[in-house]
Structure formats: C-alpha cells, structure tokens
Amino acid sequence: MAVRRSFTFLLRPTSKQAAALTQCLEDHRQLYNAALEHRRTAYRAAKVTIRYGDQSAELKGIRADDSAGQGRWSFSSQQATLRRLDKAFKAFFARVKAGRTPGFPRFKGRGWFDTVEWPKDGDGCRWDSQPHHPTATFVRLQGVGHVRVHQHRRVLGTVKTISIKREGRRWFVVLSCDDVPAQPLPATGAVVGIDMGVARLVTTSNGDHIANQRHLAASAGRLAAAQRDLARRKRGSERRRKAVVRVAALHAKVRRQRLDGAHKAALALVRTYDVIVHEALKVTNMTRRAAPEPDGEGGWLPNGAAAKSGLNKSILDAGWGVFLTILSHKAESAGRKLIAVNPANTSRTCAECGHCAKENRTTQAEFRCVACGHTAHADINAAVNILRAGLALRNAAKAA
C-alpha cells in the first residue's frame, strides 16, 4: 500500500537568495490581492462573477507588462496562487450555503502571506537539482536559483508539488510526495481507547498517561515581553519589523515543539496498539467564543466568556487537532485501525454498571458512580467507555 506524505526541510539560502525569496513572496501577495480586488470590483460594478479560468487567462498579459516583476516567477506558481484565492471563495460560498458565519476572503497584508507553491516538480522548480553534488542537496527555483537544503532524512515516493514557506527568519521547503510506500508494523493484538484532556494530553484505557507539555504556557513570559516591545514600536519602522520577526519566531518555536510532542506521542501509541479508539472531537466548535447574551436593557448578561477564553487557550495549547491528524497519518502508514466515536456522555457514564449521570463526575479527576459506587480516575473511566464504543462500532461493521 502506498500513501501520500509531505517532507519538510530547512533551507540555507545565501543573502541574495533570501532577498529573492522575500521578493517572490511579496509579488505573489500582490498578485493575490490584485486578483481579489478584480473579483470584488467586477461584482460590485457590474454584478459579474470572475472565476479562476478568467484570471489565469490574463496572467500572460500581466507577465508581459511587468517582465521585471511578475514575469520573473514561474507561471505555474502564479496559477497556484490564483487557485488559492479561488479555493478561499469556494469555502466562503460553502459557509454561506451551510448557514455559518461566512467570513469573506480578505486582502493579505505584509507578514500574512508566507507560502508559495509550485504544482509540479520540473515546472519552474526542481528538487535535487544537483544530484551529483558530493555533500549537499539543492532545490532550484525560477528567479531564485539553486538553494541549498538541509536534508536530514531520505525523501520517499515521487515528488509532486514543492512549496516554500517562511517562518520568522527561517525558510523551509515542503515536498508533497505520492506513492510513498507504507511501513506496516507487526501486529501486537492490543486495543486501546484514549481520552483527550487538558491536564494530560492523552489517558489510555489501560491507565497510562501522556503528559501535556503546555509549550505556549511555558513561553508565555517571553511572548508577553516580545509583544509589549512590539506594541511600543512605530508602525512602518525598522525596529517594528524586527519586533514582528521576534514574535513570529517565538510562535514558530512553540509550534515546532507542539508538533514534535504530537509526533512522539502518536508514534508511541501506533507502535503499541493495533486498534486505537478516540473521540471524534470538533475542536473548532469547542474553542468558539461564548456568545454574548443581551439583558434586554441595553447591557449584557454574564456568559462566562473569561473562563471560556482560558479553556479555549488551554485546548489550543494542548494541540488536540494536531495530535489527532498526526495519529491518523501514522496509523494509516503503519496499517493500524483508527476508530472515532461520539464523545457524548463518555465522561459521565460508569464503566462498570453503565449508569449515566452528571453527578458521577464529582471533580475533574475523580469519578464516583452514584448507582453502584464504582470509583476510578475520571479520564481512565472515560477511555474505557470510548474503547467499548469503538469496539461496538467495529463489530457492527463486521456484521453488516
């Protein structure tokens, strides 16, 4: 079995190449914004809907009129930027149709456009562009040249798309590869249910815990100092630009730490268990702000917004969504079975007698059944219920 995987490597550009990469991002940002303005103006003035095909057909003329600017970069990468805008519009209309808060596509300011994609290896870009170099790997990008890559592991499969991403002062190349051979692990015969939490990232039905490292909380002091420094800087100044880079670098470090922890936790589970059952969590819905409640007299009723904000921050710091995504990818590659179950009442139901009541959960950590007296750690009790629900789904699927 083959799967699709991405490989991310640090770039080592020279100062001239770094300047060219920065200009490449800026020109693609301006193209994105100009295409967005084109769509807005056409609809506002004449009720005409502009689509991707229309704007892609105009690229040739844009490149000819600006040969020293837009004309320097790969035609296919510019098409990818236009498709990115088209995808944003499709998502907007899908939200409108579904009755959700739509969120119209926005213009990208400086610092909010950090990725450019080349849709095909060999079209304006080339991975491993100097294969006979004795010590280093290079990626060639049109308008930039051969950029050195810190390749820390072997690339598997066939490189399909190449993206360049900026994080603070660092540059990365991201390879999306097809036909990556799966690496199935030997069967263990073990099954497990896992409960996601804030106090602990994961609690298993066997009673094991994986700690929540709280990387954002650990960096909160440095982030607060960097953001205070940023707030004092004059807009448009060089000092403000440097302060923005420092804040972005700290956030990027937290993101890398969270990813590293999620990879290690997911790998430990995949190596140990053949079947892993988890809650089908909708993290986006769980971390929404508390809705304001008018009191009918021009004011607002207390809605617990402050407490909800703190919980939201803790959930996002734990990185539930990131962890479950990585766990899914690793389970697919390893040939493991991953089952998602409805999380409703898993923390209120007794794993011994099945009695479900709010009073069973006396504290955050303690579970005491009011019907049979069963006591257990609340997260372990929930994980056992999750496992049973997952096995019931699997047996029902087999019987169907």
Descriptive report:
The protein is an alpha+beta fold. It folds into two domains: 2-181, no CATH class; 191-215 and 251-294 and 302-399, Nucleotidyltransferase, domain 5 (2-Layer Sandwich). It contains eleven helices and 16 strands. It is globular and about 80 Å long. The mean pLDDT is 92. It comes from Nonomuraea montanisoli. Keywords: DNA recombination, DNA-binding, Metal-binding, Transposition, Zinc. One of its GO terms (molecular function) is DNA binding.
SSE layout and pairing:
Elements: E1 2-12, H1 15-46, H2 52-57, H3 59-65, H4 75-98, E2 115-118, E3 125-127, E4 137-141, E5 145-150, E6 158-167, E7 170-181, E8 191-196, E9 200-204, E10 209-211, H5 215-218, H6 220-232, H7 238-272, E11 275-279, H8 283-286, E12 293-294, E13 300-301, H9 305-318, H10 320-334, E14 337-341, E15 366-368, E16 375-377, H11 378-399
Parallel strand pairs: 8-11, 11-14
Antiparallel strand pairs: 1-5, 1-7, 2-6, 3-4, 4-5, 6-7, 8-9, 9-10, 12-13, 15-16
Helix pairs in contact: 1-4, 6-7, 7-10
Question: Keywords for this structure?
Answer:
single chain; 400 residues; alpha+beta; Nucleotidyltransferase, domain 5; 2 domains; 7-stranded antiparallel sheet; 5-stranded mixed sheet; 11 helices; 44% helix
